[in-house]
Structure formats: structure tokens, C-alpha cells
Queue: 2 jobs
Job 1
Amino acid sequence: MINEGANLTKDADVIVETQPSNTMMPSDEVRSPQPNKFIAIAIAFVMMAIAIAIWLLRPPLDPYTQSVLSLSGDPVQGRSIFVMNCVACHGQWANGKVGPSLHGVSERKSDAKLVQQVVSGETPPMPQFQPSPQDMADLLSYLKQL
Ligand code: HEC
């Protein structure tokens, strides 16, 4: 009785171990890389499509900002507009006082963002300015050379 039981277990082990390893493994190795590659390409494609969709659906610039960006500014004029309106907070040479230093600000913010910063009044205590498009273009060209 004891021997028979032992033999049965042994036989079962042999069947489980030998059969699958000879027949299943090779075909698995051939098949698995292709679906993985396909999934990776599909994910990359979907992400690119989403990025393009976000770019296409970005809000258009408002007409004011558009006209500012279409004008070429004069940094000397911009400097005098800055002295009249901005130095109280940003300092005589834009080094910062109440407001932050503006040196290198154009590397951190796009042209459109700089225009928004000046005309929006969204970051109190900085007031909302309403310069003409040409004045704003001049101011922008001054900010960009800081
Ligand atoms: C009453 C004070 C005040 C005046 C006047 C003022 N600002 Fe500011 N400005 C600030 C403050 C405070 C901030 C920081 C706002 C924040 O990000 O919370 C700021 C931020 C900015 C920034 C963004 C800086 C950054 O690092 O992102 C720009 C650009 C700027 N001001 C330009 C100007 C210009 C140009 C003028 C003049 C037309 C002006 N400011 C006048 C107080 C002022």
C-alpha cells in the first residue's frame, strides 16, 4: 500500500515536469516579443496623438496679445515705460524690491505670459496695467533684454 502511493506521486511528477517543458517553451519564446513590441508602439502612438490634440486645442491668443507680438518693440522706449510704471516695485534696475527681480525673466516665461503678467492683474499686489499694444511691445522688448 505504501509503495503504490509513493509510485503514483512519482509518476505524476514526471509527467508534469517533462511534457510541458519540451512542447510549450519554444513556441512561447517565439510569440512573446511581438505582442510586447506592438503594445509599446500602440502606447507611444496614443500618447503622441494626445499630445498633438492638446497642442491643437490650446486656447488661441487673445487679440491684444496677438497685436503686441506682431509689433516690434523698442527697448529704449520700454526702459522709460518701465521707469515710470514698474521701478517702485521691481527696483531701478529691475533687481527686485516689493516685486521679484526681473533679470532673466524671459527665459522663465514666454512672451505671451509676460504680456499676461502685465495686463491681467492676476498676481496682486502687482496692478493691472493697460498699455497700448505698441507700449507693451516696447516694454516686452526691454524685459527680454534683462
Ligand atoms: C505694486 C507693485 C508692482 C508694480 C508697480 C509692478 N509689479 Fe510686477 N510684480 C509685482 C509682484 C509682487 C510680483 C510677483 C507676483 C507673483 O508672482 O505672485 C510681480 C511679478 C512680475 C513679473 C513676473 C516675474 C516672475 O518672475 O515671474 C513680471 C514680468 C513683472 N512683474 C513685470 C512688471 C512690469 C513690466 C511692471 C510695470 C509695467 C510691473 N511689474 C509693475 C509687483 C509689482
Job 2
Amino acid sequence: MIKKILISGLLSVCVASSLSAAEPKAVESKVVKPKAVELKEGMNAMSGSLYDLQRSLLTNDKKVALSATKKLRTQLDSVIGNEKTIKALLPEEVKHKSSIAINSAHLIEKAITKIEKTLNDRTMNAINKQMRTQKAYLAIQTQCFRCHNLVRDW
Ligand code: HEC
């Protein structure tokens, strides 16, 4: 019993000291890594919504289209819609391009609103609705590619 207590006591001391020894490293990696991860997660989330939106326009599914635009708007706001957030998320060498991000976010937001208004317009005929929403979808995609071309060099 005593042996057991001693061992567990010793163990907790070891764990505690190894934890405190590891602490500076953990803090250090918190500063660099999570931001890149956060950015990638946000981007992947937007990519998922954009895919849903594309599918919904190909299948003429208004319900899915409206839920995809809703999701995309929220993701956009949290990833690239706010200059402070995007500045913190962008890699050091492209930080100065944060105003481009804000501009892209603004144009994507406008296209999202256009899709929503068009789909909810009871007076517009089907072919016009389709052409308008498709055009707005392509405008969103153009903004995604535009920024990627600026931040990547492959
Ligand atoms: C402000 C610039 C900017 C805009 C606008 C932008 N992205 Fe990104 N995107 C980035 C950066 C920076 C990265 C991370 C670095 C890299 O992968 O080159 C990234 C990475 C990604 C990735 C790869 C994530 C991973 O796991 O590697 C996907 C997918 C993506 N973006 C999708 C999108 C979609 C979809 C849109 C449009 C709705 C979009 N992006 C708009 C800057 C942008």
C-alpha cells in the first residue's frame, strides 16, 4: 500500500515536472501552429459550403442552396470578413495582403446576397433565376481563386 502511494506520488511529481518543462514549447507552438490550422479549417469549411452550393444549383434545390449560402456567410465572417482576424491568420509573408482578403470577402458577401434575393424573388422567372444564381456562384469562386493566386506561388 505504502509502496503504491509512494509510486503514485513519485509519478505525479514526474508528470508535474515534465509538464512544466514542456510548457514553454507548448506556448511557443500555440503562437505559430493553431493559426495556420484555424485558417485551413476555416477554408475547408468554406470549400464544403461552396461545394454544397454548386450541387444545389446543379440540381435546382433551393432549400440546400439557401442553407449553403447561410453557412458560407457565417464562415466567411469568421475567416476573412474581419481585418483583425485575417491579419492574425495569414502567414507572415502575406500579412500585408489582408486588405485583399477584406475586398474578396466583401465581393463574396455581395454574391451570396444576390443568390439569396434571387432565390426568394417570387416574380422572377426560372431561367433568369438560374442564370443569376449561377453567375453569382462563379463570382464567389473567382474570388477564392484570385486570393489563392496571390498567396501561393506554385
Ligand atoms: C484572403 C485570401 C483568401 C481567400 C479570399 C480565400 N482563401 Fe482559401 N486560402 C487562403 C490561404 C492564405 C490559405 C492557406 C495557405 C495555402 O493553402 O496556400 C488558403 C487555403 C485554402 C484551402 C486549403 C486548406 C488546407 O487544408 O490546406 C482551401 C480548400 C481553401 N483555401 C478554400 C477557399 C474557398 C472555397 C474560398 C472562397 C470561398 C477561399 N479559399 C478564399 C487564402 C484565401
